[in-house]
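Dear Dr. H.,

I hope your travels went smoothly. While you were away I took the liberty of generating a structure for the chain from your last submission, since the lab meeting agenda had it listed for discussion. I wanted you to have the full record in hand beforehand rather than looking at slides cold. The sequence, exactly as received, is reproduced here:
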Amino acid sequence: MDKRYLRENRNSFNIVKSSKIYAKVGDLDDAIFIRDLLVQCDWDLNRIPQYIKKDDDYLVLAIIDDKLHLLSKDKSMPDTLRIIRLVKNFKRNPNNSKYGLNIFRVFDTFTIKKQIAGDDYIFGYYDAFEDARFVRNFLLDNEWDVNCFGEIEFDDETDSYRVVSVIDDYVYVLGNFTFKSQIDLQKVYEEFLAKISKHKYGLADYPHLDLLKDRIPELEDRFHVKTKDKNWSFDNVNENESILSQVIFNLTPFQQSVYDSIDSNTSFDEIKRSLIRYKSINFENKIQRNIDELIELNLIERIGENSYSKTNS
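The corresponding predicted structure, in token form, is as follows:
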């Protein structure tokens, strides 16, 4: 087997001529095919086609950073949109790592970080990988200029729309929507500020919003909305006290009874026994529905398979 211009690595093959690496390919048969293509093109990367037929496959090729890359092996002829998406995906994740370039996870928070001129710059913190991926992709496509973001941007990875705000050069994702027509910016801003307030007062845990905890009045002015939530008001809150008591005060009578029946690691059966005096049709479903509502209010949390605890216990 002719292995001219091939240099074997542990899991791949470099195609090398005159000390220049032209390509790195994982499979030996593909490496030989691409080596022969380079020879046929007289090693001129500008003559390499976007795709080429090999046996029953179409090899999708791209020249990125002055090297030839095999992006995909497709069974059908790729169209322009397919090629564009493959090139974008490679630039975002050239090493096929879990999160791709510039995204790092610490506990449950995703951080976008890039080194520029020897210094590390952080562009944002996120509680969802999809949000971090969207921001990273947009920044890669726009040369890391945060000023390119509009209020609403399209996410080509998920075919959805995201509401974005840049605050002190940090990029925040405020909401995610399937259709642009679904977006009510005032409601999005209100919900975003409510999340910051819940985090500030210990009603919810959003570490990615830490930097905004003491900037709520400023953000209200910025977005022209007041912080509000369907379950409680943040008006005239004493910042030295938790507003947990206000939330509990606004519970329905049955929610209050379910809440009172839960201590630490209380099983569903124990909750039922505590509430047996309320037994009626769909008794268990009613309890479960109210448990789910209390979890949403961050008053209780699920422990293990079928037990619950107060979040402040």
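Two observations you may find useful: The chain has a mean pLDDT of 89. The chain is about 30% helix and 25% strand.

With kind regards,
E. W.
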